[in-house]
Hints:
Chain A is an all-alpha fold and 274 residues long. Helices cover 73% and strands 1% of the residues of chain A. Chain A is built from 10 helices and 2 strands. Chain A has a two-stranded antiparallel sheet. In chain A, a hairpin with a 5-residue loop joins strand 1 (46-47) and strand 2 (53-54). In chain A, helix 4 packs across helix 6. Chain A is elongated and about 80 Å long. Chain B is 75% helix and 0% strand. In chain B, helix 7 (160-177) crosses helix 10 and helix 11 packs antiparallel against helix 12. The interface between A and B is large, with 44 and 51 residues.
Amino acid sequence: MWPAAALAGLALAGLALAALVVPALAPADTQAIGDVLARRLVAPGGRDALGAWHPLGTDAFGRDLLVRALAAARLSLAVGVGGSMLSGALGTALGATAAWRGGLTDRAVTAVADVLLAVPRVVLLLVVAALWGPGVGTTVVVLALTGWMGVAHLVRAEALGVTRAEYVTAAAALGAAPGRILWRHVVPNALGAATVATALGVGNAILLESGLSFLGLGVQPPAPSWGNLIASGRDLLIVAPWISLVPGVLLVLTVLACTLIGDALQERTGAGGR
Amino acid sequence: MPAPARPIRSPLARLARSFAGAALLVWAVATLLFTLVHAAPGDPASFLVPPGASAADVARLRSELGIDRPIAAQYVRWMGRLLHGDLGESFAQRRPAARVLADALPASVALGLGSLALSYALGVAAGTWQAALRARGDRRGRRADAALTALATIAYAAPSYWLGLGLIAAATAGAARWDVPAAWRLPSFGASDPAGLTHGWSATVDRARHAVLPLAVLTAVGASGVARYARAAVGEVLANDFVRTARAKGLAPARVFVAHALRAALPPLVVLFALALPGIVAGSVFVESVFAWPGVGRVVVQAIGARDYPVVLGAALLYAVATVLANLAADLALPWVDPRRRDPPAR
């Protein structure tokens, strides 16, 4: 498991680097449309009528797919990682607070989590995208607001265990303030589980974002995201299959890498649920 | 979930508590949806009126829709209607939203139940086999386990709509290029042939043929998730002492597997049933829109495009009810498959 995860981490780092560097070095703006007739639908590895080489081909508007797919990687990775880190932070805060305060706070957090878990995440995302209008901001916020429950559950359980530990009693006996105990003892102990759950959530968040964008409810064209790139190749599936294939392969490899890393972290720490 | 504060004595009380909890959850989801709609920016009346409508027209529509009343009154009215199964009128189709959803439901249920059954059968079989291979401990067993794990992990990582597009390409252009005989070609659009018969044997065959591709995608994604879970669950059980004891006392390996290992792995698999449902719902939204399958998922996506809020909210509520019911079913089935979860006998 471990070498596979190291390889996955390396691949993800490579992808992130390429996503940062390649679109910046590309001769043209990733969204600009140039000479459509001369450049459109070039097969991978081919040259267009103007002589430019396209390693992964071009789309229906003659834009280079390698550059577009890597520009999309920026957005997809940022939304996936940003959304799950936000939900991880929210879940850690809510779970630790619930366990620490107990009573009504605990019940309220658990009840809200139960309600949110009763609606499939995709459906919540669809409803909010429909009501607030699609966009990158909405997607990140909703991913964060619908993804914290698992992390909160784990952190709450860990924190409940820690509050009963003797060193916490000792710290309280030494006169440590509740805030200090929470911050210095409870949260660091629960952080392992929270990190694993957050890492496991990244792949899922990337998948959800791509799905929303595929349906036209996430990132809006001409801004590229893997989901809307795949959607843009839908009508040209037979003529130019590479338009949907290239972003799809990148997406699958990315989610695969995230899953492998999450699994390895989980195995190593022995912490965290699904 | 935390353990209940006080012990519950009779199974009947337990049942009542579960049902009350489920009803409370559905009510809370309905309230959440109501809040979301009313917190959202924009006035539904302003985009329902035709262009060039006067302010008086908008005001009349607002009072017709009841959205000019105080928010508390609207909430009470909405809840009252919900209790009667009234979800309001679809903006786009000008007929009850409940009707719109009810018309789409059978197609979704057929696809969902079919893929759930297939995912479970394939996933549990694959996961159990993998656990057995790994337990064997030799090199070939480990390799076969690793290969199956890789396959399941890749299928788990692939978005269902993308797999669907791949299958559509294979069933159309691919089938033409590879000279697949016409009888073997699978339709990749809709749930039935619009020019075909509506009943009889050939209509049944036609529907089954239309279901193959969407079912294949949903099952690939579902079964890979179930297999990952089943492998872990059965593997955990196989490492237990009682399995070794059963083997040591000379039971046939097959009997050890079925009577001891699978039996003990049943509870996590029952819990997985509740966990798997949202995934199938999510998959069905994408798969239905890719294959133009006339189910609830496709209706939702179309309703969002048309800003048809009553239908969107009704569908969200429907999904929530399905999820809550699945959880309830798993909750009630758990003591039945897992004696440790049974309440202590009443004193």
